Amino acid sequence: MKLIIEKDYEAMSQVAANILLGLMNENRRINLAITAGNTPKRLYEIMVPQVKGRSYYENVHYYNFDEIPIVGSNGYGVTMRNLDNLFFTPAEIKKEQLHPLDETNWQTQDERIKKAGGLDLILMGIGSDGHFCGNLPGWTKFGAETYSVDISGDKAVREALAAEVGGDINKVPTEFYTMGPKSVMAAKHLVMFANGKKKAAIVKKAFFGAVTEDIPSSILQLHPNLTLILDEEAASELSN
């Protein structure tokens, strides 16, 4: 594991952008799976003017590693909608470069990626409970490839996801889809980043503690090419 600790959120976002852009500049097809959410907002703000209007980045293909469908909607699910707002539309990424995971094709996700040459890099955040992608504590098996998560009987999870679909629990699906640990571990390079004091405890447990399904992100310790990018607050519970 390569550990990078930067002073603050701005600096860590710049480092992550440099890693992505460096890979994207290679003269071949590049397959990326990137994260939505709050942590990467500044990263995408940095990347948009670097990517927009530059045809030499048309070699880059994008995948989402999880998806929450929105009941009653014919468009993107939560993850692709957020990625579209944060990056794809502002950077004018062509539709031919986007390869959405959704309820119609999750069963073929791993095969599609394999045929495309595999993922060169996955950019992820970590949840305060230790989840990564859609791999939640209590639901995750380390041997899982891309799978569906049945939340039809879990009121707490459904209520938590309601905020992601506009606050209407009637728009929350009965299942969502995620690349499992086995699928993620097949990528050539994993980049995990986290910021803020609220992530300090789980960073220590996930990357410097036992490997356990109770903390799904702990499996990432075993990847041969993992880069962990933190600001000083997120790294505050780590020893020298």
TrEMBL record:
<keyword id="KW-0119">Carbohydrate metabolism</keyword>
<dbReference type="InterPro" id="IPR018321">
    <property type="entry name" value="Glucosamine6P_isomerase_CS"/>
</dbReference>
<dbReference type="InterPro" id="IPR037171">
    <property type="entry name" value="NagB/RpiA_transferase-like"/>
</dbReference>
<dbReference type="GO" id="GO:0006044">
    <property type="term" value="P:N-acetylglucosamine metabolic process"/>
</dbReference>
<dbReference type="Pfam" id="PF01182">
    <property type="entry name" value="Glucosamine_iso"/>
</dbReference>
<dbReference type="InterPro" id="IPR052960">
    <property type="entry name" value="GlcN6P_deaminase-like"/>
</dbReference>
<dbReference type="GO" id="GO:0004342">
    <property type="term" value="F:glucosamine-6-phosphate deaminase activity"/>
</dbReference>
<dbReference type="InterPro" id="IPR006148">
    <property type="entry name" value="Glc/Gal-6P_isomerase"/>
</dbReference>
<protein>
    <recommendedName>
        <fullName>Glucosamine/galactosamine-6-phosphate isomerase domain-containing protein</fullName>
    </recommendedName>
</protein>
<dbReference type="GO" id="GO:0005975">
    <property type="term" value="P:carbohydrate metabolic process"/>
</dbReference>
<dbReference type="InterPro" id="IPR004547">
    <property type="entry name" value="Glucosamine6P_isomerase"/>
</dbReference>
<feature type="domain" description="Glucosamine/galactosamine-6-phosphate isomerase">
    <location>
        <begin position="13"/>
        <end position="221"/>
    </location>
</feature>
